[in-house]
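In this section we walk through a basic example: taking a raw amino acid sequence and producing a predicted 3D structure, encoded as discrete structure tokens. The instruction is simple. Fold the sequence below.
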Amino acid sequence: MKLAAVFPGQGSQSPGMLADLAGQYKVVTDTFAEASEHLGYDLWDIAQNGTAEQQRQTEITQPLMFVGGLSVWRVWQQLEMPAPSFVAGHSLGEYTALTAANAIEFAKAVKLVALRGKLMAGAVEPGVGGMAALLGMDDADVVAMCNELSAEGAIVQAVNFNSPGQVVISGHLKALENACVIAKDKGARKAMLLPVSVPNHSSLMEPAVAELAAAIDEAGFVEPSIAVVQNAEAKVLDNLEAIVASLKNHVTNPVYWTDSVRYMASHSTTELVELGPGKVLVGLCKRIDKSIVTHAIESLGAVEKLIAARKEGVS
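The resulting token sequence is shown next.
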């Protein structure tokens, strides 16, 4: 019986996030303050008072969600909760997982994530790219459709395999709009554009790769102290060189989240905690493997409920 700790990526942020948890655990605001010193702006103020539109800006969202996840991880540690056997993070959350596993220092990780957001935001012109969610189609059918639709100047790719029947596609905006229409014709229950201006994890992110890879090399990654399940391979990589190589190509590689959860389940994981704002990953896990007990640790009430359950010997 093993525990996995997972960290959310872009999309789980919201104005006022983690406010009640911060009221009880000072480590939350301390973590944001530490990050703000390195970033040069007040990240906690944006978390509490920023508009939804401001928080959706990729160069803001990425440090916001990274620090949000790390602050809840520090609450978990402060409460002396069990150490996980695995950590993983969805997309951006992979950086949070690696930091939680002591593979990179927090200060260096904050700067690296901020650079990642800036490079990704600048990889394509505004209004050119985006992402869309398709519900109710098989993974293979989505991949085949994207291959059929992609052409020079009209890239659309399957990039987030989130749970059975839920795939996110990414690419040029016009190609995505066309894909949504065709997906419905092919039987998709839903096909909708997402409020994201950056075509994450698609080949359109290639302009961000070289500079980000150089920054990763300079960040001083070391062997993680906890096994990290990485997005692109959906497994634990067995050496630092492979871990870093995967991270360098992360922005243009798909996120195989379904397979990542199944990997952890196949290695005796029976309990999963989502640390950070929102409950997206818990929801996905329930659709991937109902046998795994899940907890979303995103509020004071959630923490208190988990503490009470553990005291009673029930998880």
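Looking at the output, two observations stand out. The mean pLDDT is 95. Residues 99 and 291 are 28 Å apart (CA to CA). In the next section we compare this with other chains.
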